[in-house]
Amino acid sequence: MKLSALSQALLGFTASVHASTIQYSTVTGYFLQDEASTDPSTFDYTAVNFGLINRTYPADKELKHHQSLTQWERFYHQVQKLNDDSPCNVEYKVLFLGRHGNGWHNSAETYYGTPAWNCYWAELNGNSTVTWFDAALTPAGEDQALVAHNFWQRLINEQHIHTPDNYIISPLIRTLQTANLTFNGLDLPHGAAPFAPVIKELFREGISIHTCDHRHNKTYIHSLFPSWRIEPGFTEQDELWNGVTAETTAAQKARSTRALDEVFFTEEYSKKNSYVSVTSHSGEIASILSVLGHRRFSLNTGAVIPVLVRAEHVKGENTATSSLPWTASAHCTSPPVTSVSACVCASSASPVTTPLVATGI
Fold first, then answer.
1. Quick check: is 17 in a domain?
2. How many structural domains comprise the chain?
3. Which positions are catalytic?
4. What is the C-alpha end-to-end distance of the chain, expressed in Å?
5. Following DSSP, what letter does each residue of 72-95 receive, concatenated?
6. What is the CATH number of the domain that holds 331?
7. Considering only CA atoms, which of 208, 213, 239 is closest in space to residue 331?
């Protein structure tokens, strides 16, 4: 099979890739999630206004009767002011990074335990009860997406929040369902951009040998949401998942950088359109936060973290290169020993790297 150029680059078939010429950083001081004192394990974004800190902004002085405006109205003006005052090689955007709701793969990992899940069960398409290949949302996951929907509507009604100018979604089913439940049917403000998302390959979950990371083909995805746009170059079959090799942390971080590069300094995602929603996954959001220099902040299923990002085009091309090999992942061929902290195959069998399922789904 002849792979696309993107697949070859991501799978490490090319020797190296050029580092991005865009430098990213998180602008702190605006959200509670930026602060070391905020505990991610107990944080509820719906209870604290998305984490937006109650404070004044330098741009407030330009607003008449700013005391009557909501925190989100003043924050939006502050972001616009940052962009207006910045040179052409600097952009500011607010990324609303949303994790999908609970999926059947999340429930299966809880049921089997993480060691057994990682070294055997996750390599199957499912069991006799449920399917977790490109896992769909559970009823609990659907409820979590509806919590986000209701929260957005409350902020629209009460805070007059500026809703996203652009919507990006990972191609995996659980993220497509989450975004649809979250944003479809919102009573958007007058003049707001409609919910017209684009499905983008680079924002998918970190690619392991787990079948939950193996996406459906393009035709099937289109059949679920025929009005949604799929980015150019999106391949019919999933060329990235093969059931044998997995992205390293460095390889995923390089992919996340490329994903961000598609959102900044482009015509589609203009400087004026400063709010972008990204519906993705825990591992990919963690990778994006790392690229942005944000502190580690784990999200529960269905949670959202907003980040104010500063992007700067550096002069000249950065010619530094990085080798991005993927790693082979060993697993068991039958249910492993349970109640252990690491993968131990039954009867002391040696782990293998042969795929347990077909890769052409």
1. yes
2. 1
3. 100, 205
4. 15
5. HHHHHHHHHHHHHHS-TTEEEEEE
6. 3.40.50.1240
7. 208
